[in-house]
What we know:
204 residues; alpha+beta; Protein Transport Mog1p, Chain A; eight-stranded antiparallel β-sheet; three-stranded antiparallel β-sheet; 11 strands; signal; DUF1795 domain-containing protein
Amino acid sequence: MSRIPACCALGRLTLLLVLAGCSTDQASLGDAPTIPVASETSLREVSDRSSTPSDEPIEKRFKGISLTIPAGWQERPPASEFVQAEFALDGPGGPARLTLSSAGGGIEANLERWRGQLTPGPNDPPPQQSTVSVDGREAVVLELTGEFRDQFSGGVPQADWSLLGAIIPTGPANFFLKLTGPRETVTAHRQAFRRVVETARLDD
């Protein structure tokens, strides 16, 4: 019987050990736990929840003033560069628009500008103007109903609309809250609007 040289026997033994090691590595990789990955559905659900309007009141801070916005008022990107924040308010007459902004100028001049945006009809209630104390300062609230036309946007006149506005003195400038939309919707949010004004906090 021929004898296998020692060097060849050693080589075969080495090869067998290598193959056995590869088999063991593959088995261990196959037994390794799989890291769970979020499904497309779960990611979509998270995205939807993040875009849902808050069910709780939110605080909005601006220069010189902070406001508590009621739940359900949906914030939107401002449609004008002069507006600092904008909200859409749903209601029985259709959506209304609330804008928040700050500007200089006298209070009466701005009230007159608002009056010029609505033309009351014979059956519309007369304008109402009142004052409310806001953190020790006197703010003015104006309520108008009639045919609305925004002088800046040049839009089509809207019949049976209302404007509910407030001007809060915050120092050198004034802060404006202006709610415009179908009369029924503005009326539905009237009390909530006044609460936002009455509970405003002014910076020292």
